[in-house]
Amino acid sequence: MCYGVATALTGYPSDMIRIGTSGWRYPEWRDGFYRGVPQRLWLSHLASRVGSIEINSSFYRLQPPEYYRKWAAQTPPDFVFAVKGPKLVTHVKRLRHVDDALRTFLASLSLGAKQGPLLWQLPPSLRFDAGLVQDFLAVLPPGRHAFEPRHESFRTDAYFDLLRAHNVAHVVSDAPTFPCIDAVTADFAYLRLHGHDELYISSYSDEQLGEWARKIHDWDRDTYVYFDNTMQGAATTNAETLARLLGSPIPSHM
């Protein structure tokens, strides 16, 4: 577990925290969160309730620039997207010889001012290799990047030191199937909540969310939080509850 002391908080500067969900196109939400909302308006509906969303489709296939422009146009002026890096880079090439793939992906991004961090999720079988990580970090462009390893071997100062040297955030991940490595390595923090008991399913209790709120408060820096417990619709409710606990019940654009 990565939890600290359970405490509900108020008065935290809301402009430092972006809370949202990992993706938005879930048929499971149709009869709940999206009840009565046409599918073409799902993104704008969710963006009216949260401050950020992770784009996941970029992980599976290259997205055309016009898609990013369309998504940006459907969200409020101060909205921010995080974008998941392609599995071609992280899972197929496993961070090796990625120059061309990385260049193609970066050229596709067309979010403008709504571009937030790039998320690099590693496969569970990828062990920590200092030289490999160093080489990959060295080719990343300027901007905010977040690294989500899923192997216990990354729980080492050598890994944390590399991220700090490049101001790259380690992703604190809560899930039952891969390690929760609690470390803040950049001038911003990145948290993914995948479901504590059942991966992508289980809802977080108010007590658990209070514990995460305390941790976010103690980090005392810009923080991006994404709920990935999407399969039964808990993500949206949990996101709104965590925002209230942190004293930011609704986005500033509401």
Automatic annotation (TrEMBL):
Protein name listed in UniProt: Uncharacterized conserved protein YecE, DUF72 family
Entry-linked InterPro entries: DUF72 (IPR002763), UPF0759_sf (IPR036520)
One Pfam family here: DUF72
Alphabetical list of Gene3D superfamilies matching this protein: Protein of unknown function UPF0759
Source organism of the structure: Lentzea fradiae
